[in-house]
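Continuing the series of single-chain predictions for the mutant panel. This is the parent chain; the variants come on the following pages.
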Amino acid sequence: MALTLKLNGQTHQVEAEPGTPLLWVIRDKLKLTGTKFGCGVAACGACTVHMDGEPVRSCQTYVEDAEGTEITTIEGLNSKAAQAVQAAWVELDVVQCGYCQSGQIMSAVGLLSENPKPTVEEIDDYMNGNACRCATYQRIRAAIQHASNTMEA
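Parent structure:
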């Protein structure tokens, strides 16, 4: 089926079978590989993208459900929250292996876009479901707090 997707501010025409996960269209058809496949059941967060500004798991979002929405991948982040999060990730050396980090960053930007001054508990609740095999959770939390403080300044 022919679909029109708006991804990172650009319109794309794609062919995909109904029920195809958005993740595979992003990676295989549009060749944007920053969004990762982790578990395929929306449990790890590696495939997180924003759809109309809200973080969603692209492995469990059908491509036809994304038509008519604004999709943002890690490659298209450019908001104030995104810049603060990305800078904090570098400054605090969050990344270890890096596999989960695009999903972590997408979720962190979603959080700070909704709640620019989250508490530690709010960070933990919002980021729950984003798995990191290297267990950099404390660095992720610290980077979100740092980004929040940077955005305020």
